[in-house]
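Let's do one together. I've listed all components of the complex below, 294 residues spread over two lines.
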Amino acid sequence: MKCSEFLQELTNYLDGVLDERTKSELEDHLAWCHNCYVVCDTTKKTIEIYRDSQLYELPEDLRTRLRSAIVSKCHQHKKTGPRSV
Amino acid sequence: MGTIQPRVGEPVSDELVLVQAAKRGDVAAFEELVRRYDRNVFRIAQHITQNREDAEDVVQDAFLKAFQNLEQFQGQSKFYTWLVRIAVNEALMKLRRRRPERTVSLDEEVKTEDDSLPREVADWSPNPEQQYSQAELRDILTRTIQGLPPGFRTVFVLRDVEGLSTEETAEALDLSIPAVKSRLLRARLQLRERLSRFFQRRESGDGNK
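Okay, and this is what the predicted structure of the assembly comes out as:
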């Protein structure tokens, strides 16, 4: 497997959806190609860091405010019918 | 090297019951659906619009639109996927309004082929995120992801942050599965490349920028 082929399969590998044969070819490649190993490892860390980052958490007070606005609009929609909201 | 495990979603077993009740006009049932997904919709909206007020509007508009159009939800997909599709469309509309000079679509900015090829291959510190305070890290991550084109950013957020499957992401964004996969790969590689500046191993002394 060449580095460019490894790169094509990287997403499937990280998502665990490769067939056994391709997976084992890819892991052979990783065993000797340090650059691809680093790319694979740091891409995995990139995903994990974003997944665990808690960016843009919805603050509880804003959450309550938004929910009550939504609920009140839904009630209004029920009362006045589909075309009036 | 292990694979990435998807974020475990909320239990959906009783979800259809809630949706059915909401279809009959039960606002309390719909409110429970709002409780389940408001955080996700807010995060997705803020990632796309990059603007807090717009994200707040998107949360309200998306849920209201979902309530108004529940009849059209046939239950072939998950309610969440259907809701995300509405939310993404609302968020893109906001983004277009803010940037009328540019056409914003999920199809744009995908022509540059070489921007995802790894150039920076220095290894990272074992726990790169611990080099920074919470606030610094949040700032680095926010600025880095904001630098991605909307089409890449959105695919990455749905797949890797919110844990939708490739198929669900394709459905929510009205893209083909190969398009989702290709964008996801490039988004991941571009983020990795940009984060390398901040996270690479430092003790060698010559790896720093």
